[in-house]
Amino acid sequence: MPSVTLSGRAFLRISGKDAETFLQSLITTNLPDLQADEIRPGALLTPQGKILFDFLIGRDGAQAFLLETTQDQRDALLKRLTMYKLRAAVDLAVVEGSEVTVAWDGAEDGAPRDIRFAKAGLDVSRRAGGGGADDATLYDVLRITAGLPEAGRDYALSDAFPHDVLLDLSGGVSFRTGCYVGQEVVSRMHHRGTARRRPVVVKGEVALPATGIELLAGGKPIGTLGSVSGALGLAIVRIDRAGDAIRSGTPITADGAPVTVELPGWTGLAFPDDASEVPAQ
Length: 281
Description:
The chain is an alpha+beta fold. Helix content is 20%, strand content 32%. The protein has two domains: 3-189, Gyrase A, domain 2; 196-277, Elongation Factor Tu (Ef-tu), domain 3 (Beta Barrel), CATH 2.40.30.
């Protein structure tokens, strides 16, 4: 059972009798569906529907939730939640700690499951604190293979829609209930099928170049390389342009080296047969 400890994490606790209704009106995650033994992804969006903050959220008792985010997002996220608090009966607090331990292939007993990986058919647990026995780069490989992007490494905050990073398929967005910030835009994209960017797993014949290198098809950019581990990487690409390149046999390259791109199999997504199938956003 691999287990790794990730650093640079941060935690906020939102508690009180109005905690669920308060968060339900703000974030993309549908909290009534959130079980006590699981962790789900979520985001707080701009009114234009782009991801302003991202996090993982789990229950922490009967009337409380624990948000896991990054240290560089923590204070600004707390400030934004405080701005929305008004007269809601909620308490917002920083929880000390900067490490998370992730385990898989026999996840830790009693630790909540990360629903993103469950969607991909993997049993992965996640808990606050250290104790991981293996190299943290193993988690990068796991995440890249599953096609799960991470803010700061695979996309910039305020520059991606939830669909761009699979929140619509990984348990981070509900289209049945809720009325959160930016919901109208996200719902419109979903029902009109206008998502043009999606994560792909990138594979090279040799080690891939560094994060930030553009993926090119016929000399034109289709996306940017994000997380990299050896010859394996993750990128958010224009699926219409990638599909055109694959159909026409146009090489896709990263820093001049040929690569292949694949949509994560668990998503059920496919490259469009024609670029006209993906309307402009």
